[in-house]
UniProtKB/TrEMBL annotation:
It is found in: Peroxisome. It comes from the Bacteria. Keywords: Isomerase, Peroxisome. Its main location: other. InterPro entries: ClpP/crotonase-like_dom_sf, ECH/Chromodomain_protein, Enoyl-CoA_hydra/iso. SUPFAM superfamilies: ClpP/crotonase. This is Enoyl-CoA hydratase/carnithine racemase. GO terms for molecular function: delta(3)-delta(2)-enoyl-CoA isomerase activity. Pfam families: ECH_1 (PF00378). Signal peptide: none annotated.
Amino acid sequence: MSLLIADDKRVRTLTLDRPDALNAFDEALYDATTEALLDAATDPDVAVVLLTGNGRAFTAGTDLREMHARTTDPDFKPGKHGFRGLLDALVEFPKPLICAVNGMGLGIGATVLGFADLAFMSSDARLKCPFTGLGVAPEAASSYLLPALIGRQNAAWVLMSSEWIDAAQAKEMGLVWRVCEPEDLLPEARRHAEVLAAKPISSLIAVKRTMTAPLRAEIDAARERENECFRELMGGPANLEALAAFAEGRAPDFTALPAGW
């Protein structure tokens, strides 16, 4: 099982558990996490969900070997929910979602913070949105949520540069709420989760609904724009070069691409 699920004091902790793959999301993990969010949303005994990772990574994002197979293998079989299903579940999730970024957060490991109601980050963790490095477009409504959360210029750098963002930068930008020493991360995140979980679930849901309802149309529109760009770029020269470079263990070289790429 690539996802660990534990309940305590009305807090459901979801721990991404593919440490040998840096908790990268393959189709199975996308499906398991989606199902866990859907179950937590309707479980009357769950007030708060806490999402974290096992090992030295929060998550390395989408498994690039599966991404390569998706573009090159005609027999590739996607999962039941996949990436889009997980996003649907995050958009619809009615209860407080707390992220505890225990290590490297890449791709969805960074953009998921746009859906977090509270985000805690280990002082030695790092975040990266690698979209330009992969020759693709933003994801997870990050083109809307990140400018709203951290400001246009911070979001432009995070989304365009494919550079690592350390915990101090993430805190200064407002991408995370608290930075903790590694050994304090989960206890501190759990302490805050339990404060919320002691409140009426109906009230927590009402607060979140009233906060997020004005954002829904913009999130949906951003996802459509991103998906259109992603479809255009996926499998294009830049993306194929990035995936080939990953498979060959080298840095991509985008300078030799056709004009305009």
